[in-house]
Structure formats: structure tokens, C-alpha cells
Amino acid sequence: MTVLSGGICFGPATIANAQTILEEEGTITPALKDYPLAIEAGDIIAIVVTSEDFDTMVSLIGPDGEEVAFNDDYGGTLNSRIVYSATSSGDYIIRAMTYDGQQGGDFMLEVRPASPYEVAFNEAQMSLEAQDLAGAIDAFTTAIELDDSNPEAFLGRADATFGQALDEWESQGNFDENADASFEEQFLEDLPPLVRDLIVTDFETAAELYEADGDPFTAQRLREQILYIETGEAPGPTGGGPRTE
């Protein structure tokens, strides 16, 4: 039996079929709030914490008291999301927290079966963090095929593509420390046209999605990054690769 806070009960089969496992509104005053949740091995769940009042964080604590998953910012927002595939059954704790550990406010917690898109996007992010760039590209591509409305999937794939090309360029010993051009200028000059086009296309698609969503500022920043990738002209004092953060 899966027992959730507030006296709501679900049987094991319901976890796989329910649209929403747990939905709660609450107030953090000031730092954190815990919710117990029984999870069965094999369940793949999404835990989403959103707030308009504060920068959220969320942690999932396993039956042994150890943290098994954590997220601060997700998908380019200050909200938080964990996609977790349970390897063991037991009583877990969802811990919703404020970023600064002090300022609180109202928030929404939702727990539900993870969508195929969320699973693919999460796999892509984990691969990116592990520097498995080929795996990240494949997983981001899968996520985009499932849902092409999220600009962060396109940005993630661009990051992975850029990083993969950079690793290959470095491994071939292409950097000339005696050249007048900087490291980045040399790399961008040598970037294969096909790779450049893939990165630019993903950035332009992300910019269009942000623009359509009413965020012209982010769209403009991305187009400055496109100019940098195409010409080597840095968009600001820091320059850098394809990411805007």
C-alpha cells in the first residue's frame, strides 16, 4: 500500500496509472517542509515544487535516511523537479526547501508518474553532468522528439554538441599557444560547418520558443550567442561557449 500525507491512500498498481499521485499546497516558514511517501521499486516518479514567492529546492530521502536525489533549478527556472527511478521499496521523505534556508512562502508540490519526456530529459541532464556527451545528445534528441516545445532541451543538445566538438578538437592537439588568436577563437575558426549549423539551429529554435513564450530578453541573448558562434564576436565582457548562464 502506498500511503501519502493527508490520509490519501493508493495501491501499488495505482502509482503507474494515476495522473497525479500527490498534490499539495503549503507554506514554508521559514526553511523546509517534509512529506512522507511510500514508493515501490520500479516506480519512476516526478516530484515538482513550484513557487512564486521563493527559489525552491527539493530533496528525496530514502528509507535508510540518505538523500537519493536533489534538485535546485530545473529547466531554466527557479522551480525544482526530481525524476526518480526507485530501486528499492520503502518509506521515503520529500523535503521541500528554500534556497537561502530562510525566506519562505507559498508553494505547490506535485508528485506523479514521470512522463516519457521527463525521463528522457533527466537522462540527458545526467549524461551531460557525467560528461557523456554522446549519450546526452542522444537523450536530448529523444526528449525533443517527444516534446519540441521546451527550449532547454535544444540548449542542452547544443551544449553537448559544442562540448563534444571541443573535446575532439583538443584531443587532436589543434591549439597553438603561439598563435595570436585565443583558445576560443582558434576553436571556433576550426569548428566544422556541419557542427556549427547544428548548434546554431538549436539555439535559434530555443530563441524562437522563448520569444513565443513572451521572453524576448532571453531570445536576444541567445541570438548574441549565435553571433559569437558564427563569427567569434563575443556578446559581452565574458564571452564563452554556447550557454547563456
Give the SSE map.
Blueprint: E1 2-3, E2 9-10, H1 12-17, E3 22-28, E4 32-39, E5 44-50, E6 56-61, E7 67-71, E8 80-85, E9 90-98, E10 105-113, H2 116-129, H3 133-146, H4 151-171, H5 183-190, H6 193-212, H7 216-231
Antiparallel strand pairs: 1-2, 3-10, 4-9, 5-8, 5-10, 6-7, 6-9
Helix pairs in contact: 2-3, 3-4, 4-6, 6-7
User: What is the makeup of the main sheet?
Assistant: 4 strands, antiparallel
Q: What ranges have pLDDT less than 50 throughout 5 or more consecutive residues?
A: 1-18
CATH topology of the largest domain: Serine Threonine Protein Phosphatase 5, Tetratricopeptide repeat
Question: Under the CATH scheme, which architecture of the largest domain would be assigned?
Answer: Alpha Horseshoe
- Class by SSE composition: alpha+beta
Please state the CA-atom Rg, rounded to the nearest Å. 21 Å
SSE succession: EEHEEEEEEEEHHHHHH
Strand content: 15-25%
The CATH class of the largest domain is identified as Mainly Alpha
Global shape: elongated
Helix content: 40-55%
Q: Would you report the number of β strands? A: 10
Number of helices: 7
User: What number of domains?
Assistant: 2
- Main sheet strand line-up: 3-10-5-8
Determine the N-to-C terminus distance.
Answer: 43 Å
Mean pLDDT: 84
